[in-house]
Amino acid sequence: MHSENNSWILSAQCPSRLGTVDVVTRFLKEQGCYITELHSFDDYRGGQFFIRAAFLPEQADFDGDGFREQFTARASAFDMQFELTPPDYRLPVVIMVSKTDHCLNDLLYRYRTGQLAIDVRAIVSNHPDLEPLAAWHGLPYHHLPITPETKAEQEAEVRRVVEESGAELVVLARYMQVLSPELCHHFAGRAINIHHSLLPGFKGAKPYHQAYEKGVKLVGATAHYINDDLDEGPIIAQGVEAVDHAHYPEDLVARGRDIECLTLARAVRYHLQKRVFLHAGRTVVLTG
Amino acid sequence: MHSENNSWILSAQCPSRLGTVDVVTRFLKEQGCYITELHSFDDYRGGQFFIRAAFLPEQADFDGDGFREQFTARASAFDMQFELTPPDYRLPVVIMVSKTDHCLNDLLYRYRTGQLAIDVRAIVSNHPDLEPLAAWHGLPYHHLPITPETKAEQEAEVRRVVEESGAELVVLARYMQVLSPELCHHFAGRAINIHHSLLPGFKGAKPYHQAYEKGVKLVGATAHYINDDLDEGPIIAQGVEAVDHAHYPEDLVARGRDIECLTLARAVRYHLQKRVFLHAGRTVVLTG
Amino acid sequence: MHSENNSWILSAQCPSRLGTVDVVTRFLKEQGCYITELHSFDDYRGGQFFIRAAFLPEQADFDGDGFREQFTARASAFDMQFELTPPDYRLPVVIMVSKTDHCLNDLLYRYRTGQLAIDVRAIVSNHPDLEPLAAWHGLPYHHLPITPETKAEQEAEVRRVVEESGAELVVLARYMQVLSPELCHHFAGRAINIHHSLLPGFKGAKPYHQAYEKGVKLVGATAHYINDDLDEGPIIAQGVEAVDHAHYPEDLVARGRDIECLTLARAVRYHLQKRVFLHAGRTVVLTG
Amino acid sequence: MHSENNSWILSAQCPSRLGTVDVVTRFLKEQGCYITELHSFDDYRGGQFFIRAAFLPEQADFDGDGFREQFTARASAFDMQFELTPPDYRLPVVIMVSKTDHCLNDLLYRYRTGQLAIDVRAIVSNHPDLEPLAAWHGLPYHHLPITPETKAEQEAEVRRVVEESGAELVVLARYMQVLSPELCHHFAGRAINIHHSLLPGFKGAKPYHQAYEKGVKLVGATAHYINDDLDEGPIIAQGVEAVDHAHYPEDLVARGRDIECLTLARAVRYHLQKRVFLHAGRTVVLTG
């Protein structure tokens, strides 16, 4: 919220143990850090602790690097991994698309107007269609076509573009290619995908036809991290939209667009606000 | 809505063909029936037509039987099946439960206060626990315990109770037994079940543990007709509720209760208002 | 839905009376019009009847003008006003904006991709800021600045632009000027406005500050026709979004953007699909 | 959630100042309290700090009174008000009703099944109608009729019943009498009311008729604390439900029932879980 704009974020996780909160909050106090929002959760099943603190430094010349260095010693005693994020941070991202542009258009709008603190470094697509949209936003567009024969090369090229761009997150905004297990593994935890999940889940070919046959009354969208299994990674956000009998299969596809946009944007926002923690194949999302 | 209370309902379906609306509306006009609400839908994929008309007879001594008789001739020319439902109709139902009572309590509250135009003829359970709740409402409670050995007998008894009660609908309000294929078939289209579907669908054992492992952000409920496959019948209504990482598997179970109540009640209401049409394994629900 | 794309729409209203449905459906039958979806409602309080039929002509050379001419005689016997809309109809609109572009961006996206069957004739603004967005879509942009002294002239210019464009609907997509009573009256029923309504309604200055002071948990949006009172016209669609204590007044403003976009787009869609009927200061919206 | 069941809750608030988090978390660490969930928020506009910690004591013989006593010294240095709530705490409540029973039925169901950790001490009503419902739950029912002449006496009696019952919260579950300013003041912050708020807010006589005239598409419910102004107190929870043109004023009333039940139950749950903080006429609700 408001105070977020000028707050630093300290986010961390470690194995559950007495004193995990104290090691963080005591240090923040000692450093003269004024906590505006704090949220921690201890997962008793997973035996893991998660914490996120938004704070304002009291002194004007607050030194992030010095903070990191000094906190490292304390954190290591708890096997704690942490990140310190400055107030003016904009997450560098690469967006991958095919021909469908509703999610891309939505992300670029939020990017252009500063509603989403991302720094779009490049757009990658296996089709040339969305180049004009990228151009209007002054963004590099890499058209990397793919065939079964060239898949390995194309994915190598995708990796190269992402690496050279300095992106910390890849957003699969309706990229209609199945990534190879290698690329999934490479991007694990660093790539967010949106897929049109349905209630109940319909797997296999033509999911919307299956959903239509059952007469579903809701269509949904799931934003999740990629892991080794493309469509089954840890869930970050989900949304639904009502439909009825008058929605033929092609209408179900269309109907899901708005909820896909909103759900993907929400997931990216949670990620860049350092609200999402990955552990043991699932997420903890410290909202509110 | 309001005018529903004193309206007759004519609901019908037949194969798609020119003139299906006209055969209904012309007859209503001829009979001096004042239409307050009309909804029709022609499913081009299924090739089937559905219509629902709420109307007020102009003459005070409107004769339902006469109406049915006269309309039969016209309807048969279109292979049209129809139902005429009077304004004061209360649907006779049998409710089946186990030990969990949230759906039962909700249904009985709506029944007792007249919010749901059902006439509860009996409650059937494989456990004795909910007898006091039935007793307070002055309703017969049939405790029919079940074991693998007695399943066939118990189900025969269930059928007998339903038949003798005159129920037109069986509501499975968290009845935790898997009905035999025979009983499913027997009740096909005449029994509504509620089950906790999830996004994406988790099948097999311990669905809530699977959902927890994935970190789902929504839990859902699906009310559907029973057909030969217990949990896969045509969907009537669906709902969802938000959850987060702090919901352990046992919390996910608890969290779904409110949405199960609301979704089941909505499905029963649509059914008794003759808004739900079954055709070729899916539903058309003419709401609003 | 699907069949809408190639269906004609007949929409009509008249005073309540026996036979209102029949006069429509009988004529459609006689003309060989195959009804794919039909919805009628008779408002007993207002004493007014509303009907909307989607249909496919049986003959290839269906003549809309001939249909209109022939139906006029029948309709006039019921004091019925009707509209016949062809399948390929795109509603000509003028969009009015100020500096805020979330609703404009959303509408133009849906326009550009054909998701919303509008034909944007011009964009009118009292500021120059959004001209590039219009330019990228190849749309004329009329910058008509306004001061208290020039209000009358500016509004005359707005009327001229709208008239010359041939627009049938004006969409106020966050146009931050209060229209004069004369212009409101001129556009009555032909202009849709979106405003951030709150729960409960806060009127007067700084509504978001009032809402913050009360600690509202929901912010909303209302799309409505303009009538003589700018913010109080007949409601077409409404939506809400959850907020919490961490939303300061400026956050409440930001939070409402997504729901404003969705609600305005839905209202425009209902309007162009001829689902919205205006009568006695309120709307009847025949959805589904 | 799960761990809540056996967690102690420490909730506190004080003026904003550096070190407010640390004074709480350091003490919990020193006392060997294992924090399972922690949430704090510092309201920069109000200049007030809020914190809620759920924790499990390490030692089996944890002494709540000793904890309170020792923490008092530290807290007072920060002008901090705090509450310590044990895991097996059940909030003693008095429920006030008139003739409408949907909220009462819902609350008593959640009470009876242990879903809501309340201890219903008594039910107070100005009508005798709901006595049987109370009786079935084995609860004392105080029928305290009211007339303009006896209002002062009746309210004195209400206060007496509440005091003698030891209730810490009064739940106005559709109590259709306007409390006197004196009683409002007396119950300020200790009584939760549910009222059917609408979008936009309609005040004055017959709000549902006003809402109908405007053609609202949503009806809502607001649960709030009572303060000196009965219907305008600090908001705890809000919900909405969709409606359409076919909902006549009397239908709007009926339609709001489900959302009133859910919203009131949610507000009572937040309150008893010590998630709701009152400050300067508004609430901070630390959920999730």
Automatic annotation (TrEMBL), chains A, B, C, D:
UniProt key word Zinc: no
Class of the enzyme per the UniProt entry, highest EC level: hydrolase
Domain named Formyl transferase N-terminal: residues: 93-267
GO molecular function, one term: formyltetrahydrofolate deformylase activity
Pathway entry: Purine metabolism; IMP biosynthesis via de novo pathway; formate from 10-formyl-5,6,7,8-tetrahydrofolate: step 1/1
EC annotation from Swiss-Prot or TrEMBL: 3.5.1.10
Keywords: Hydrolase, One-carbon metabolism, Purine biosynthesis
Reactions that this protein is recorded to catalyse: (6R)-10-formyltetrahydrofolate + H2O = (6S)-5,6,7,8-tetrahydrofolate + formate + H(+)
Record: active site: 231
Matches recorded under HAMAP family: PurU (MF_01927)
Functional note: Catalyzes the hydrolysis of 10-formyltetrahydrofolate (formyl-FH4) to formate and tetrahydrofolate (FH4).
Protein name according to UniProt: Formyltetrahydrofolate deformylase
Source organism of this protein record: Salinicola lusitanus
Lineage: Bacteria, Pseudomonadati, Pseudomonadota, Gammaproteobacteria, Oceanospirillales
